[in-house]
Design a protein that fits this description.
The protein is built from nine helices and ten strands. By secondary structure, the chain is an alpha/beta fold. The protein is globular, with a radius of gyration of 20 Å. The N and C termini lie far apart (47 Å).
């Protein structure tokens, strides 16, 4: 089935995007990402070496750009200026690479997005030719604002980054899905496979996760579980679930021809 995730004009078979932080080493990172089937992998430029620190282990040796779409992100940035400078550096390190993930955080405790600074940075980056996927609050109004600025994907949080709390507000996600034409990718909060399946059943175009895989007891096995969950959730969404009937039973077996009737 040619059911592709299309971002900035490029098709991807996998709807699971994965982060590269928090693993034991680069070998485990590669094994887990192979298991989950991710084609797009995020890299925190402020925390991971992709060439800015010569002589240190380079993540790109484990995850070569010819095999993965590298998605540099601005994790750890708290102002628009920091985020823009970080992604300009990433573009230089990756030879003009335009696809990036923008996140501007509001505070170090919740890591909730600072939306005024996010909107400011998104406008600058789009004008400079970046293809911006953007981490944001689950707010349909601001999602539309980001779409109008020219971003290529909307990435609302399901719950706080690294919390593993799952999808706390499915109604807001549904509002965003219904109001923007861009891909909507759940970013942050997924804890286990059922969370990923629920996101896809809601109609999200993809799920991005890191901690849920990296902090599992067996990251490689969890990567495989997440791959199956995303695929199953997508299939269920496309199939169309039955209508809910909270107060009426509907027997599976026919009512005619019963013994004694």
């Amino acid at each position: 089935m040619n059911d592709f995730l299309t971002i900035a004009g490029k098709n991807y078979r996998s709807r699971l995007l994965a982060g590269t932080g928090k693993y034991r080493d680069f070998a485990q990172t590669r094994a887990a990402l192979d298991a989950c089937g991710a084609e797009i992998v995020t890299v925190a430029i402020r925390r991971t070496n992709i060439g800015q620190h010569p002589g240190e282990p380079n993540l790109l040796d484990a995850l070569p750009p010819e095999h993965f779409t590298i998605l540099p992100n601005t994790a750890g940035c708290f102002t628009a200026d920091e985020a823009v400078r970080t992604l300009r550096l990433a573009r230089e390190l990756l030879g003009g690479h335009a696809l990036v993930k923008l996140e501007v955080l509001g505070d170090p405790q919740s890591l909730y997005p600072n939306m005024p600074e996010t909107l400011k940075a998104a406008g600058i980056l789009v004008r400079e030719g970046f293809e911006v996927m953007v981490y944001c609050a689950d707010d349909p109004i601001q999602a539309r604002m980001l779409e109008d600025l020219g971003c290529v994907a909307i990435m609302p949080l399901a719950s706080l980054i690294g919390s593993g709390m799952g999808i706390l507000n499915p109604w807001n996600l549904a509002l965003i899905i219904g109001r923007v034409k861009l891909p909507v990718i759940v970013d942050a909060g997924v804890g286990t496979a059922s969370d990923a399946a629920i996101a896809m059943e809601l109609g999200c175009d993809g799920v991005l996760m890191n901690t849920a895989i990296a902090h599992a007891r067996d990251p490689v096995r969890m990567g495989g579980a997440m791959k199956k969950a995303v695929e199953a959730g997508r299939e269920a969404f496309l199939a169309g679930r039955m209508a809910k009937k909270p107060y009426v039973a509907d027997p599976s077996s026919p009512g005619a021809g019963l013994i004694g009737s």
